C-alpha cells in the first residue's frame, strides 16, 4: 500500500526566539539550521527578514543545503500597494526559497486590529500570495487565529483560506495561535476546511497552551492536513509550540501513522534524535528536560524492582518503542525501591563486572537504601552512583585525597565605593603523597570551591582542563535552620559528555563540595589518568 507524504516545517528560529530567555545570534541560527537539516525536515524557517538585524543578516544568503529555506513575513498592509510595502519587499528580496506570509483570518481582528474591511483583507491575501509566486518563491499562508476565527465566523475564515489557495498558495496553514483549541475541535474544523482547500495543501500550526499541541497536530493529520509546523523541543512563546521531537518518532514508529504516511526523516536520522535534541539544549545553555517523551533521560527509565525484573526478561513489555530507534537508552534506576535486579542491571550498564552472588552486591543495595533514607538520591546522579558502587566493591583508585577545605565570604566596599560580596575558598589535597594547596575566588562559595579544587591537581590537571559545571540545583529536604540539603551538580566536558553527581549534608557548602569532588573523580576515572594508589575500598562519605 502506498503511503501519503507528510511535510515537516520547522519554525524554531522564529517561534523559538519568542521563548523567554532565548536570544539567537546569527552563529546560533546557522548551527541550529544544520541540526534541523540533519533530521530531514522539509522546511527550515529562518525568521523574519527586516524585523531585526540578526534576521536580516541571516537571510543575506541561503542557509540550507537540502531543506527549503523559508522566510516569514506579513501580507501587504491595508491601504498600501504591493510596490509600496517595504516589509513584504524585504521578504521577497531575501535569499529564501519559500515565503510564509501571515494573515488575519478572524473577522474581529481584521476590522479592529487591522482597521480595514473584510473584503480588503481578502484582496491583500490574494495579491500578496500572487506576488510571492511572481518572485519565484514558493508561496505559503499562515492563517492567524484561524480556529477562533472559524468559530466566530466560519464563512469568512473559509473565505480567507480559499483566497490564498485560489491565488496559488502551496500551503494554507491553519494556526491555533492562542493554543486553546482541543483535538476534537481541530479534527472537525480541519475536515471542514478540506472541503474547500485540498488536504495536500493544508498545514497545521499548533501552540501548546492546553498541553495539546502534539495531539492537535496529529488530529489535523487524521482530518486531512499534510504539513505540520513545530519547533525543536517544543520551544515557543508562552507554553511553546508543537514539539517536532515528539511528533517525528510518533509519525515514524506508531503503526497508525507509519503505515499510512512517510516523511523526509529516515531511520538513521531518527536514531540521532536524542543527541540532536540535547545538542540544541546545549546551544541554548539549557538543561535537557529529563522527562521529555522519547529523548528525555527518564523516557526509558524504570525505578521499581518488579518492573525492572520484567524489563530484563522482555524489555518490550514496558517500553512503547525501542530506545535505540530514537538514540536513547534504557535505564534501570537504583533507589530505595530497587531490588537486586535493578542493581545488577545498572552495574552491567556501567561496565562494572560483578558476580550476582558477590556479597558486595547486597552491601551496596543496603548502603543505597540507607543513604536514600538520609536524603541521597541516585536516580539523577549516575556518576555518584557509579563511584559509590566501585568504592563499595573496592574498584575506585584514589587519584587525590582532600585534606581540608575552607570558605570565606566577605561583604565590603570595593575601590570605587560599591558594596560587593566576595567568596574565597582554600582547598588542601594530597596527590602522590605531595600536599597541594589552592585558593580560588568566585561569585559565591560554591563557585569559589570549584575554582580552588580544580586549580591544581598535580599530574592529573590536564585531564580536567575542559571540565565545567553545566547546572547546579539545591533542594531542602526538611525545614528549620538545621535542614538537610541535597545538591545536584551536572558537569560537562569539551567532548560533549555530561554527568551528574550528588551531595547531602546539613551544610549546603559541604553538600556542594561532596558533589564537586565526585564530579572531578568521575572525570578522572573516565579519562586515561593512571591512579596514584591502589583502589580504595572504604565508602565515600
TrEMBL record:
Keywords annotated in UniProt: Acyltransferase, Amino-acid biosynthesis, Branched-chain amino acid biosynthesis, Isoleucine biosynthesis, Transferase
Enzyme class: transferase
Annotated protein name in UniProt: Citramalate synthase
Chain ranges of the Pyruvate carboxyltransferase domain: 6-271
Domain of life: Bacteria
Species of origin: Microbaculum marinisediminis
Gene encoding the protein: cimA
Catalytic reaction(s) noted: pyruvate + acetyl-CoA + H2O = (3R)-citramalate + CoA + H(+)
Pathway connected to this protein: Amino-acid biosynthesis; L-isoleucine biosynthesis; 2-oxobutanoate from pyruvate: step 1/3
CDD domains hit by this protein: DRE_TIM_LeuA3 (cd07941)
Entry similarity comment: Belongs to the alpha-IPM synthase/homocitrate synthase family.
EC number: 2.3.3.21
A single BP term in Gene Ontology: L-leucine biosynthetic process
Any Pfam family hit: HCS_D2
Amino acid at each position: 500500500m502506498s503511503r501519503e507524504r507528510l511535510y515537516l516545517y520547522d519554525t524554531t528560529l522564529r517561534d523559538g526566539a519568542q521563548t523567554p530567555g532565548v536570544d539567537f545570534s546569527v552563529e546560533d541560527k546557522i548551527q541550529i539550521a544544520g541540526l534541523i537539516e540533519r533530521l530531514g525536515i522539509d522546511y527550515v524557517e529562518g525568521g523574519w527578514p527586516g524585523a531585526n538585524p540578526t534576521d536580516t543578516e541571516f537571510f543575506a544568503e541561503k542557509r540550507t543545503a537540502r531543506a527549503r529555506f523559508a522566510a516569514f513575513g506579513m501580507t501587504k498592509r491595508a491601504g498600501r500597494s504591493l510596490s509600496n510595502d517595504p516589509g513584504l519587499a524585504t521578504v521577497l528580496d531575501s535569499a529564501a526559497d519559500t515565503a510564509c506570509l501571515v494573515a488575519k483570518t478572524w473577522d474581529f481582528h481584521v476590522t479592529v486590529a487591522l482597521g480595514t474591511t473584510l473584503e480588503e483583507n481578502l484582496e491583500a491575501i490574494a495579491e500578496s500570495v500572487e506576488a510571492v509566486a511572481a518572485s519565484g518563491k514558493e508561496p505559503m499562508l499562515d492563517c492567524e487565529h484561524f480556529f477562533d476565527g472559524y468559530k466566530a465566523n466560519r464563512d469568512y475564515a473559509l473565505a480567507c483560506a480559499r483566497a490564498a489557495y485560489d491565488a496559488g498558495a502551496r500551503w494554507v496553514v491553519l494556526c491555533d495561535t492562542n493554543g486553546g483549541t482541543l483535538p476534537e475541535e481541530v479534527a472537525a474544523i480541519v475536515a471542514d476546511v478540506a472541503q474547500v482547500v485540498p488536504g495536500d495543501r493544508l498545514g497545521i500550526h499548533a501552540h501548546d497552551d492546553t498541553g495539546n499541541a502534539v495531539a492537535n497536530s496529529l488530529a489535523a493529520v487524521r482530518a486531512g492536513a499534510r504539513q505540520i509546523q513545530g519547533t525543536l523541543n517544543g520551544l515557543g512563546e508562552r507554553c511553546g509550540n508543537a514539539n517536532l521531537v515528539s511528533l517525528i518518532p510518533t509519525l515514524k514508529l506508531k503503526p497508525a501513522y507509519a503505515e499510512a504516511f512517510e516523511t523526509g526523516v529516515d531511520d538513521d536520522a531518527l536514531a540521532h534524535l536524542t543527541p540532536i535534541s540535547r545538542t540544541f539544549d546545549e546551544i541554548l545553555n539549557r538543561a535537557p528536560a529529563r522527562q521529555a517523551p522519547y529523548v528525555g533521560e527518564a523516557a526509558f527509565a524504570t525505578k521499581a524492582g518488579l518492573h525492572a525484573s520484567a524489563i530484563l526478561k522482555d524489555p518490550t513489555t514496558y517500553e512503547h518503542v525501542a530506545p535505540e530507534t530514537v538514540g536513547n537508552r534504557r535505564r534501570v534506576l537504583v533507589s530505595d525501591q530497587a531490588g537486586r535486579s535493578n542493581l545488577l542491571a545498572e552495574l552491567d550498564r556501567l561496565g562494572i563486572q560483578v558476580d550476582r552472588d558477590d556479597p558486595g552486591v547486597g552491601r551496596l543495595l543496603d548502603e543505597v537504601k540507607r543513604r536514600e533514607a538520609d536524603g541521597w538520591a541516585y536516580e539523577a546522579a549516575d556518576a555518584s552512583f557509579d563511584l559509590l558502587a566501585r568504592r563499595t566493591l573496592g574498584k575506585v583508585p584514589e587519584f587525590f585525597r582532600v585534606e581540608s577545605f575552607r570558605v570565606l565570604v566577605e561583604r565590603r566596599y570595593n575601590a570605587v565605593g560599591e558594596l560587593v560580596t566576595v567568596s574565597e575558598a582554600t582547598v588542601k589535597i594530597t596527590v602522590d603523597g605531595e600536599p597541594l594547596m589552592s585558593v580560588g575566588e568566585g561569585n559565591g562559595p560554591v563557585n569559589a570551591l570549584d575554582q580552588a579544587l580544580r586549580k591544581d591537581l598535580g599530574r592529573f590537571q590536564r585531564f580536567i582542563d575542559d571540565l565545567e559545571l553545566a547546572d547546579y540545583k539545591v533542594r531542602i529536604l526538611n525545614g528549620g535552620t538545621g535542614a538537610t540539603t541535597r545538591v545536584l551538580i551536572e558537569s560537562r566536558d569539551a567532548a560533549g559528555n555530561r554527568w551528574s553527581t550528588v551531595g547531602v549534608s546539613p551544610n549546603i557548602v559541604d553538600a556542594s563540595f561532596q558533589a564537586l569532588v565526585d564530579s572531578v573523580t568521575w572525570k578522572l576515572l573516565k579519562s586515561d589518568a593512571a591512579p596514584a594508589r591502589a583502589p580504595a575500598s572504604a565508602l565515600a562519605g
